[in-house]
Amino acid sequence: MASLSLSFSSSLLPSPLPQDKNKTTATTTFTITTKYRGQHSSSRVFRCAFASPVRKPTSSSSPVRKSPLTKRRHWKEGEFPGISGGSIPGQSRNTPIKNLKKKMDRKNEAKAWVNTVTEALSDRIQKRQWLEALEVFDMLREQPFYQPKEGTYMKLLVLLGKSGQPHRAHQLFNQMVEEGCEPTSELYTALLAAYCRSNLIDESFSILNQMKSLPLCQPDVFTYSTLIKVCVDASRFELVESLYEQMDERLITPNTVTQNIVLSGYGKAGKFDQMEKVLLGMLESTTCKPDVWTMNTILSLFGNKGQIEMMERWYEKFRNFGIEPETRTFNILIGAYGKKRMYDKMSTVMEYMRKLSFPWTTSTYNNVIEAFSDVGDAKNMEYTFDQMRSEGMKADTKTFCCLIRGYANAGLFHKVISSVQLAGKFEIPENTSFYNAVICACAKAEDLMEMDRVFKRMKDKHCQPDSTTYSVMVEAYRKEGMNDKIYDLEQEKQNMVANVSKGD
After folding, report:
1. Among 67, 230, 252, 276, which is most buried by a count of CB atoms within 10 Å?
2. So what's the pLDDT on residue 495?
3. Helical H runs in 94-129?
4. What residues does 32 pair with on adjacent strands?
């Protein structure tokens, strides 16, 4: 019995046969291999010609003849018809590229590592863990394939400024310039803001002068607004006037934010005539009209001073100006009523918010918790906190500061400890206000040993003590007649001020 095997050895080869004008002819070669049992196999090659079907000419006058070697392919939308390895003459389709898989694996592993560490950096920045964020950033910088961008430096500068680390922010800024990242006016403003947050006015003006000397980093309205705020907070109104003059010389028009800052400063300093002058100027201006922030500034000013009637009067005036309140506006009213223990009005505002579909925010609950915390009403404070959690509202540092102070005022010091533990469980950022609340609770409980431990932990966490920290501790030691401790604290405070001025 014979077995036949049919192989397609070539395709579409040019034919030597004569071709008709309207036909194309090609030849196909078949190799038929015949095998008999016990005999040698023999093969014969047959060549036959066939004619391809006649195609209708296109609408053009002369039909275009396509070469038999041309191979058409309909590419999908978005694809690029690149040349495959097999289509290049002399190159085999199966030729491997050496170490391609290893290179791709290494690249993917490096990319995965960078993505993981970058996420860790973003997480540290979001949680305001500035020291850990710098450590992760240093890890990334050591990798040759990582190039930090302007946005990363901006986030770190803002974080260091908010964390009271202006000199570390300046070190990071210098490091950025040394590594070839061009500074911008936005980055300089972020560095200036870091000094402003620590009330270092002289250093802030030094940054401003440096910006003036650089053509591509000229100060703008945001730079001047940041400087004006720190001068207003320090009641350095003569510097505010000089900054306004500089803005006028540079043709920089103050915006509503700038005017709101000055408005708030005059109000806090009790300069109501100047405050009214600025407000009237805003009402007459076409470029910086009063907005809801102006409204909030005035209401917050009178609310913090306990002048409820003036607050309510200005609320009506702003409504007559056509300015609509927002959630923060109602939170200011709730906080002001709570401090004056006007719980009926506080509840009325909260119900009004619900009626107008304004959501209760973390600040809303914080104001209510703070109202009960100030009077040591632990029961209503806990009820508000439980309702806050049941609605899925996330607590923040102020929430736990109010809880700790409230339990301390109520004499429930065991609940102070549980609140601190709960804050750690929720990963609440521990800032100066948080430690001050715990230190104050320890002082009320006359547990000076625990107060010392909290103070040590505060410094170990690189959280800067402030005047409130030292005054609370000094008063606690004075009650016990511990003059040596008072002397040590006063010396430490002086050294801290000296180190800050030196940039340590």
Report:
1. 230
2. 83
3. 100-126
4. 6, 44
Q: What is the DSSP letter of 429?
A: -
Q: Domain residue spans in the chain?
A: 1-10+28-48
Question: What integer pLDDT is reported at residue 398 of this predicted model?
Answer: 96
Give the relative orientation of helices 432-444 and 448-460 as an angle to the nearest 10 degrees.
170
Q: How far apart are CA 46 and CA 50, in angstroms?
A: 13
- C-alpha 473/C-alpha 486 separation (Å) is 8
Residues of the chain with pLDDT under 70: 1-115, 497-504
User: How far is Cα 42 from Cα 32, in angstroms, rounded to an integer?
Assistant: 9
The pLDDT, as a whole number, for residue 143 is: 82
Q: 145 Cβ partners below 8 Å, 6+ apart?
A: 110, 114
Distance CA 131, CA 463 (A): 11
| 168, two tokens | 């570390």
Q: Is 42 helix (H, G, I), strand (E, B) or coil?
A: strand
Residue 283: count other Cβ atoms within 10 Å of its Cβ. 10
B/e letters for 306-324, b = 16+ CB within 10 Å, e = fewer, are: eebebbbebbeebeeeebe
Residue 247 · residue 255 · CB < 8 Å: no
CB-CB contact of 169 with 161 (8 Å): yes
Task: Name the maximum alpha-carbon separation found in the chain.
Answer: 123
CA-closest candidate to residue 435, choices 403, 401, 412, 467: 401
Q: How far, in Å, CA of 41 to CA of 225, rounded?
A: 97
Contact 450, 441 (CB under 8 A): no
What distance in Å separates the CA atoms of residue 78 and residue 499, rounded to the nearest whole number?
A: 61
Instruction: Give the per-residue pLDDT at 91.
Output: 43
Q: SS3 for 48?
A: strand
Backbone angles phi, psi at 14, to 5 degrees: -60, 140
**For residues 407 and 413, is the Cβ–Cβ distance under 8 A?**
yes
Cross-strand pairs, 4: 34
Choose among 336, 345, 276: nearest CA to 301: 336
Q: Which two tokens stand for residue 401?
A: 């500061």
pLDDT score for 298:
92
Tokens of 459: 């410094």
Terminal CA-to-CA distance of the chain, rounded, Å? 99
E-only strand ranges, 357-424? none
**Which runs of E-coded beta strand occur in 294-378?**
none
Among positive and negative, which fits the CA dihedral 234, 238, 244, 246? negative
- pTM value is 0.62
Other Cβ atoms within 10 Å of 150 Cβ, number? 14
Q: Which of 127, 137, 139, 193 is nearest to 166 (CA)?
A: 193
